[in-house]
Amino acid sequence: MARAAAAYYQQHDATPEVPIIRGIEASEVVDRILAMRRQEESDAYQVADYLSSSLPMASLSREDELDLEFEIDIDPACRSKMAEWFYQLVDFCRVDRDNVATAMSYLDRFLSLAHSGNCSARRCVGDRQEYQLAAMTCLYLAVNLTETREMDPSLLVELSHGKYAKSDFVTMAEHITFGLGWRLNGPTNMGFVNHFLGLLPPQDAKTAVYEFECCRRLASARDDAALHDLCRVQAELAVSDYRLASSRPSDVAVAAARNAMEQVRPQDLPALLRSLEAMGMEPLSREVDGIRSILKSVFASNADGLRQVTSLVRLGEQETSAPEDYHQPHVTDMKCSSITNSARCVTEVTHIQNRDKLRREIGEGATP
Fold this sequence. Notes:
Elements: H1 2-12, H2 26-41, H3 62-67, H4 76-93, H5 98-111, H6 119-126, H7 128-146, H8 153-159, H9 166-179, H10 189-197, H11 213-240, H12 249-261, H13 269-278, H14 286-301, H15 303-321, H16 329-336, H17 339-342, H18 345-361
Helix pairs in contact: 5-7, 6-7, 7-9, 10-11, 10-12, 11-12, 11-14, 11-15, 12-14, 15-18
């Protein structure tokens, strides 16, 4: 059994690559979290409810007040569709999916300037074509500022079917960067999640049931991967939900981590909550509880697409009680459909539903 488990481990490289912060001192992880917290609490990274017509205007002259009268032509559904399209685009371009969170942060903060007199932001809120231009430009900025590969504006021109020219994106990029005061490196939901999970203690006690080191490593990696996957799915759903646009990324991350750890590693949740409280955070606050409820609701409404993730967790629990099955074929299936792929369910829900519908039509039966 040991030889078979070791051979599987070496042949399939079964340890998933999970970007949880590891290998550095806990004090440095805490320092990073505190730095990100200070950043998200600064005025430059605040998001207003820019779709509300009842927001107070800045102190302006009567002439400027008349000029600021405009109608809001976008709604939360526009934002949600744009975010979902962004996820499809970054997958196509093979860049980090967290660029979508960065882009939506640019967009939300820029449009928040509409009620303080920014003419370009006001046009974007009042015109869907201008809004689409601003959104695409935000993704263009996010990718070019965080990735090693550059996104050419000609790609955006092609994706817009010629609706916009290169000069339109260049001009809008100037409006956005100057409007945001060049504050373009803010924290994201997953940035906090990766650091929070890095504070968790090792799983030596939990994996001690395994006789062989390779099995312990595999079980630990599976739990880390499943936990990270559940957090990422919620974080990406939060990015697409306008109700959470003005929430602090740290609160969204705490809510996602609490929801996920209730299913994976619940025994370590109290330790994480104590660590967060020691840093001056309030992981049990009313705001976090409200975000948790929203995430659970959205998670449940996307149950068809998220079935892959939850089945992954259940399968991992089954393997915990039966380590001798690590060399069985279902482990390979689990590896092939696990971490990276199942996290993409945010943009694959429609595909999965259509596939199940097709199977029913041809008599195969839908996936259980």
